[in-house]
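name: query_chain
kind: protein
chains: 1
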Amino acid sequence: MLTVRCITKIRRTLPTTFTIITSESNNNNNSNPFIHSAATAATTTVHGGCGDHELRAKDVVISFKDWFASRNNALLDRIFDILGGGGGLDIGGGGAAASDAAFPFRNSADLALSQLGLRLSEAFVLEVLNYGKDVLSCLKFFDWAGRQPGFYHTRATFNAIFKILSRAKLMSLMLDFLENYMKQRYVHKVRFYDTLVMGYAVAGKPEVALQLFGRMRFQGLDLDGFAYHVLLNALVEENCFDAVDVVANQIEIRGFKSEVTHSILVKNFCKKNQLGEAESYLRGLMSAGNGLSGHCVSVFVDALCKGNQFEKAGKLLEEFRQSGMVDVEHAYGVWIRDLVQAGKIDGALEFLQSKKSLEGYVPELFRYNILICRLLKENRLEEVCDLLIEMKEHRISPDEVTMNTALCFFCKAGMVDVALELYKSRSEFGLSPSSMAYNYLINTLCGDGSIDEAYCVLKNSVNQGYFPGRKTFSILADALCREGKFDKMKELVVVALERNFMPSDSTYDKFISALCRARRVEDGYLIHGELNRLNKVASKNTYINMIHGFNKSNRGDIAARLLIEMQEKGHNPIRKLFRTVIRCLCDLENSEKQFLKLLEMQLSHHEPTCQVYNFFIDGAGHAGKPELAREVFEIMVRSGIEPNLSSDILMLQSYIKSGKISDALNFFRDLSKRRKIGKKLYNTMIVGLCKANKPDIALEILREMRENKVIPSLECYEELVKLLCSNKKYNMVVNLLDDVMKDGRHISSFMGNVLLLHSLKSQDLYRAWVHSRDVQNETSSLRMLHQLIGAFSSRRMEQDVKDLEEVIEQCFPLDIYTYNMLLRKLSMNQMDHACEFLNRICWKGYEPNRWTYDILVHGFFKQGRTTEAKRWVEEMFRKGFDPTERTKLFM
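structure:
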């Protein structure tokens, strides 16, 4: 909505040649006479194949390009293009060559500038210096102009270059400039000492300026009015208040006193925090009928605002306006600026609108800029839009600040296509994007998914001498990693390091991790090496990603090295990470040697503990190397560390997982000689034997366990039920269920679901139950389970599904797997009811999974209802699921 509102506001200012191409044009009668766009734009019509948004964006681009071009001074741009090309620089005037000591770069662009045929004058040189885009270019032009026949620098041009150097805080360069100037006295027509006094004054060296002034007076020379005021202002700025009174007295004696003097003296009172005296001085000037400039009032208003006396400043400003003796427009601008800087943006806007409507006041360009920048910072985009339109309507020629804030506005307002097009056309109107504009543009392009465009903008910004801020760099790096543009990301990192820019740790971590996930782990490792050399510590997650990457590349040696390194950096790896590294090592040649080397490195870097040894026993067990696990176990014992219960369990598991059942049994019997066999060890044996498909041995261990008065865990019963059902030993399953009940246990969801699944497959479980049980003497729980198995074994659904659901609830807790069993039962011959039952599953709060949908698809295909089956297949795909191989046979 914001974008639409902003575009609508902007388009109201467009000429009718633009607005006739959209449906909104009939509401637009206010074309902007300032905009005189190219006629080619008028030929763009709706029939051109562009969408309405594209047309509107194009209109906005053309409108703003025309506005930006209005400040275009082709001659000045050409001058600074030439100056920006490099070359030497000298200072001087009147055609003499000065020494290269201060500026060791004489201008190689002399010929190109001379060919422009420039008519040099004080006004033109001041215009060029004021337009200047950088200090060095201004210095080059000043030097070149001073060496042209017939032109001599004036006090004003010298003062202009001094101010440029001062604002840039290039004091050492400025002092070199002045020193070199002193050596070239004979080449200047402008008053020599005046220039030196002004230069040192502006350079922040008032004591030197005063010494030169004293030397002048000793020689019978004196400053002119211009130089006197430059010196007086510098003394005030540097708080040389005693000297201020002396120089001010000299100005008055020589008849140089003017509105400029008054402004400087008001500033002097304000700098000394003598606001009362400043006010009395102003009122005295006004009552005496002396000239009172708006600048003089501005200085006092600014001082009051800096002292947080806004109310008084506002009243005095209005009083001076009503007097009719002062042009207060300049003071208005200062008042607006101070309000904005104090965070009183609403007051500034209200004041502006009031003065605009009542007095026709139009702020200067830089006052608009400060308002727009603050509003942009506060995301008040509609008001930014209003001010930009207002500037266009008042034909205020924008500067680079305006253009850069406009770019930022379009980015923030969601019109990145407009911002990008203006950016691409920057050479047409001499725009040099600021670092803020670059950051906004890159960030917005990344958010818009235009990663390649964002990267191109970044490269251009680097060529222009800007490097993005840390946040922008991180956003672009994230986007490049996310899109898999690793070569560009690698180039970005190289550029950053070349400029001594250190991205955040998280940026590097994401890059390395992304490289590892993309199987470019070697590149990630190289970046990691660079970080190590810079003493940057990678995150734990980065180490984990690199280790997994090298494991996948079958480079367990490097993975092992990284495992040790990450611990040296303060990260503690979990057992699972050790396990993956050890498994990879065990796949290499000389696996035993590599394994023991890692163990040795681990023990040398960290104090040997039972946990460390357990990690290696676990890893060897999962790698199918029980002999290595046993070797670690023996090393631990020889080291004087008593194996704990976890050590024994891991050792048992390593034998069983490797199919070394006899070794596992022997180890288990040996354990009974040195510790009491408890529930955990028994459970480990039974569960492990079940997973190894050894039901007879598992049942034997179970009987022993019960004889020793140790109650088996529910997991033991679950694994046994699952295994016995898989082996169709249903009689044993029924007896086992009886044991579960005798132990006071309830049937778990897992066991219940296994029983339902096998009941659906055949009636064997039900028959075994009937033959092996005295049904009349069954407990109520077993009787209910018996009925449930019978219902599921039946070919037809003889009970209502809700009744069956209630029966299950009395036997064991239902889960989604249980509901899938019920759905499968229904799908055998009642597909319509099955679809209804799916709604019930969702109503119960369960999330249908792949098997839920597959049951329905399979059922429809099996009953020949192909159209409905395909519809459910599409639904599966929408949910991100694929049919099972069993169902695909029907497709």
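note: The chain is about 70% helix and 0% strand.
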